[in-house]
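Attaching the record inline, Q. Sequence:
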Amino acid sequence: MYILILSFLTAFALTYFAIPSIIKIARAKHLFDEPTDRSSHTENTPSLGGIGIFAGAIFSIVLWTPFGDFGDLQYILCAFIIIFLIGAKDDIDPMSPSKKLAGQLLAAFILVFKSGIAFSSLYGVAGFFEPLPIWLSAIISLLTILLITNAFNLVDGINGLAGSIGTLIITTLGCWFFMTGAIELSIVAFATAGAVIAFLRYNFTPAQIFMGDTGSLMIGLICAILAIQFLEINHRLEDTNLYKFQAGPAVIVGIIILPLYDTLRVFFTRIMRGASPFRPDRRHIHHLLIDYGMSHMRATAVLTAANALFISFVFLMHDRVGMHTLLLILLAAASLATYWLHRSVLHKKEPVAV
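Structure, as predicted:
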């Protein structure tokens, strides 16, 4: 337990004291995120906060992780560095989506083929428990890593949201890894949480700095790693284990539901309108809340609380209903809530009859 506290505090302290210097340098070099018609901010704001998150998390992980128990850590760190370089380059000089995707794919390849972070089966989804062929496991794992990584990049649209949601998800999984004996993954989780919480001190309204792609992509990649490892470890636990979830896939969907659902929903609606799924717009849930009249902080609090409620729900119901039923309940609840919000925003924009 002490090593988790130390990893958290180390990352927190390094990021907390690094961010002011990063803000000062970004302002001196005019490295700003300038407002556009899609932006929720109105002033030029530095967007290099992810550098501080990366520095604090990586330093703490390397310092406190027992390498003898985590032989694949070197490959995970290589993936982190690739994502860091992509994010930093895009924050300073925007890259084309295809180049960003190519870099993310390289990081995902390292995780799947060198670290062995991949799905061994479907864990009961659609009734399949058998081991997956290597080629199918690789494809599903690569797509999952890319999806979750970019989900956090897309949800990073208002002050505090990506950091708050990321901290909630990472600490939830970190606590579970600790209780199941996966101390190395727990250290990764708590070190990241410490760095992100320190960053949030400067990101809450009025935001002094944004995390940029450097931070959101790294948080997303770490969540992808933890999500896949959660399913693998949970699958190997004995049914009598106190921390075994009987509906593992539904539980992990409930844990990361907000960024996952919002990304899939936005991609689907863009395709249905004949647009590219990667074409930016203002249809994310956090945009709807802002259009409804909420402040950044209130919208962040509402969405973080909603994600926490979904987590509590799947923890309570994982052994009471079937996995597919639980997945349908999650999808229905998220869809109904979003539909209600969308209708409320449209109603609010309607002209009042005189």
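The first strand starts at residue 32 and ends at 33. The chain has one domain: 2-347.

More tomorrow.
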